Amino acid sequence: MHLIEAIGKLDEATVSDIAGQLGITLASVTNAVNKLNQRGYILKEKNPLDGRSVHVSLTKAGQRVFRLHKYFHRRMIMAITKDMAGDEREMLLLCITKLNEFFKESAEPRRNMR
Fold first, then answer.
1. Is the whole model's pTM more than 0.85, yes or no?
2. Under CATH, to which class is 2-72 assigned?
């Protein structure tokens, strides 16, 4: 899902772009891209100007999964916050922001290892 989400958010995504965004190796992305391509969720095209570069995009089925995943996230947030007061929502946002920062910092050493 994270790979489909990354492709859905990027315009003209390359395997390298996705690897950088997700903080995983090119080999891992290539493997996942091949599987999703076989299953009909993404299209894979070599760059006509640079054969080393591969562009990926979502098929209609991939776009549908991307939209359903976004919808799921919205419903989840609404369910969690519906009975919260304003200050509780602010605290939740602060906690999620700190958690996001932790994940970004944790991914940095892996990015620097390449």
1. no
2. mainly alpha
